[in-house]
Batch of 2 targets.
Target 1
Amino acid sequence: MREYKIAAIPGDGIGQEVIPAGVEVLEALQRKSGGFQLHIETFPWGSEFYQQTGSYIPLGGLGALRNFQAIYFGSVGHPTVPDHISLWGLRLAICQGFDQYANVRPTRVLPGITSPLRGVEPDSFDWVIIRENSEGEYSGHGGRAHTGHPEEIATETAIFTRAGVTRIMHYAFEVAQSRPRKLLTVITKSNAQRHGLVLWDEIAAEVARDYPDVTVDKMLVDAATTRMVLKPQSLDTMVATNLHADILTDLAAALAGSMGIAPTANINPPGKFPSMFEPIHGSAFDIMGKGIANPIGSFWTAVMMLEHLGEIDGAWRLMQAIEKVTASTVRTPDLGGTSTTAEVTAAVIDAL
Ligand code: NAD
Ligand code: MN
């Protein structure tokens, strides 16, 4: 029996609804599949925990997480805590603490789902966006001075290092190489951002020499948004900076039908630290507590986690079950249906 220790952190808002749903589905999957056993421990870290204790992660908390093989994360963000406090307190503390420098976001229109794009059928595009997840515009470097005075100043410095750009390029080329089309689109804004992103372009060209079978294609980020909308089939694997890919992946999720479907992985490629898997959506204040959050994103996230653990057969079975349900009429309101989180969860367990 292959055994894995998984840390579940539902966090805030609908994270507290979709992660328990995902845990239920994973438990059903292991009963059906046999062969592997997940030991899932749930941590109560989130904004309520922060309001009670003064921190998102208790002293020694990151150390405790290191003993797990993967982290299954919901969302952090609460109406009563400023977003930059909650995000840096929990999610970014884990991503940066565990050097999860590659953020991987697959996008595809699942069976039964309607893309807002005209003429786009399920499976008519299949993308993987690789987001640099450790530096760039989200390095946290900067400061404020003269607070409250007319001459107040704030700086937010983007940091691009040769080491950081080189490692994400290698990761992106490897993903592109592993896919049938072997096509990598390198997205920057190196016309206007003339230092960091020129370095990014130079390193992309250097790393490309190690992957002669991968076709490289370059785009500016603003043009990339129009290409995603107008010619989605022309793209396959993409790599972009922390900020640019953050925005592009939300666009990708919407083009694939709903924010409630898309999954993501925060990978520490050397495997020195656990990697973290999460749906791309946030706490969704407008629907939290109503029992109607779409759990498909957290299920697809579980598929990515199983793939990372090497449970390829289990991952495949779960994806089949998800697609069977998206093709049916059991769907939450964000997809135009009337089903609840619990009903979609039960349908996926049934399909398994
Ligand atoms: P959001 O993803 O929470 O919501 C955007 C819209 O998408 C909302 O209308 C919401 O109802 C809808 N939506 C999202 N997930 C859904 C689902 N599973 N089912 C149905 N509808 C869904 O983004 P936001 O409003 O920008 O952020 C709200 C809070 O979440 C903020 O505090 C933000 O900082 C936080 N956030 C956290 C993360 C994270 O922890 N990774 C990511 C994004 C936002
Ligand atoms: Mn985002």
Target 2
Amino acid sequence: MIYWIDPDKTTTIGEGRSGEQTSGRVLLIEDDASFAESLRRLLTGQGHDVHHCASGGTGLAVLGQREFDVVLIDLNLPDTHGHDVIRAIRAMEIDAVLIVVSGETEIDAAILALRLGAMDYVRKPLEPEILAHSVRRAIRQRQLMRDNANFQVRLSRSERLHRFLVERSPDIIFILDRDGRINYLNDRPQALLGLDKKQLLNRHFARMVHEHDRERARYAFSPRKLRETARHSVELRLRSALDVPGFRHFEIRLAAVDGVDGDGRDAAGAGELEMYYGVARDITARREVEELATFQANHDILTGLPNRNLFRDHLGLALVQARRNMERLAVLFLNIDRFKPINDLFGHARADELLCRVGERIQRCLRGSDTLARFVGDEFLVLNTGIKTDQEVLAIVARIDQELEAPFHLAGRNVSVTISAGIATFPEHGDSAEALIRHANIALYHGRLKGGRSHTFFMPEMGETTSQRLRLQSELRRAIDQAEFELYFQPQVDLLTRHINGVEALIRWNHPERGLLPPGDFLPLAEEAGLIGEIGEWVTRMVCAKLTAWEGEGIAPARVAINISPHHLDQTDFVERFMALLAERAVEPRRIEVELTENLFIRDPGAVAKKLQALAAHGVMIAIDDFGTQYSSLSYLQKFPIHTLKIDKSFVWEIDREYRQHAIIKAIISIAHGLGLNLIAEGVETDEQLRFLQTQGCDEIQGYLISKPLPAATLESLLRAQRARSVAAVAPQPKD
Ligand code: C2E
Ligand code: CA
Ligand code: CA
């Protein structure tokens, strides 16, 4: 990127048309003098021309005289409120980009500022990198807006271009007469819908509408309705010869045409005709995203199969019916034997592909009335209704075994897959969905102790815990007592500068016999055994100790993220105990970010809200982990004090595939920006993913591409190297 600064005019000019402007004129409206001075220094250091005003009044006066690219506004000013300054700036029709810098942690203040037209909201105390990034983004955006505006001006110069616009518009543009007949139509219906323009002209608009919506169209475009509302819009499905369902979704806006001479008169030049100008915009993609979001709440993204939520629903309904008809049903918990080595050998993308194909083969062995769901990882669930004998259930398992006999071709190799099944039946093994799923799982677990390809019916003597489990639980106890756990840290880096803004603490278990175990191998058990609170506290204590040590050495990252399990958060005195651990080491709360998953919000929103509010009030940052995978309601983002969204890796991994999820990841990014939330994309493994996230304006990334989770010592070397680089950048040149 090349740019130069004209010392007289102090404007920054992009180099050529393709050059990208990254520095500009910044007005700082901020009453805290020392804070303003440090901001000024930071931004000047980045090449920006910074002007400072200490009050809203002087800020507005300066804005009246000079042009700025970006205005940084403090919400708490001595003379007026920042919101009023934003309003005034908007009233003056100044097109500078507004960024609110404020200590108010209220999301309401942020939302109001954004509604009033601020582009971004940066909280105090702030991280210089975050602000610098935000300013750079603002300048880029303004440049885009300018380019766009210039383009519009050029276009409007000639009538020919107008025509061009209408004909080439991505929208269908048409004119209707008073009876709703089409008088004019651009060429879009041909390309968009495969409809012949000639057959539509002089016909009622309803001819373009799909039969499901035709009645509504006749009403919406009836003479009375047209005249009643000078301007209105409707959503309708238009007929399409090109799409499989036979329609596409459109938003249609209508306005009465007035002040048109010549064209507005009839051929004989007699009195003015009533005309209506219409624009139909294809919103099929938006509709599909909405439908996808609903689908996604009930389905597994990878396989497209129902997820465990939908499975529970189906099972619940099936139980009602089975009870009424005195029938039996079976729940099968299926697990692929030795899936982990396949995963390690072929990588997750291929392993995912295999999961999909295994799912397809299992599906072939079931009847239409059965439900197959993906539970998690390599585990599937089958609901089998209307069975009479255990033999019938075993016959299904045998069919699945048979179907899986032919090897799968994966990356040029043959892979053989077998499964094990745990089976629980109603009414023998439980009468609720939860009990049946749990008992099928216990049966599976029992069977697998004997090796793969097992088929095991639940038996009450298996109990809720198996001996294996008991052993693991006692080992976990020992692990807590003898400090067999170790923390790894994974960097979270600024996508543009690659600066390590934060690290996420991830636990490992140095098992004396089994080696280093990942959290997935022991945390679920720790949760069941009620040991998760103790483990969580160990993690927190350890993080505080590390952070203090790093600070002493001057290499601490801005924040450290800790994963908190919902079961741990459930403890009534969670907040007090958590804050006490921070206080032990005098760790500043804002350096700690707790990562929570969305399913928390379904459990007990009231109690969760209180705890999150208390944490946030203490200054602790709150991140939503695996965002988008569990509870797809966005309303809690506004209700709860949330600072960061972590986009789940499954969305990031969809980036390399041509798949519709792109729309979701884009939507997540724009939601996060709209609400002023920090955004971290997880599981970034390829340059392609990185580039896509960069173009979408994502802030931070975490993933193998940058770094795997590292032992503390390795991370510390990285942090030292980073400090050395930044010291070198600001230090005076050494004399030689
Ligand atoms: P998580 O919070 O979603 O953590 C991210 C997981 O993704 C980590 O797995 C990390 O190693 C992995 N990962 C990061 N980047 C990539 C990538 O580019 N590709 C791939 N394939 N994987 C990547 P890990 O360490 O096995 O942790 C698994 C889960 O265990 C975590 O998921 C978290 O939910 C839980 N966990 C880990 N440590 C703790 C802890 O101290 N307390 C609690 N309650 N849960 C923890
Ligand atoms: Ca996490
Ligand atoms: Ca995650």
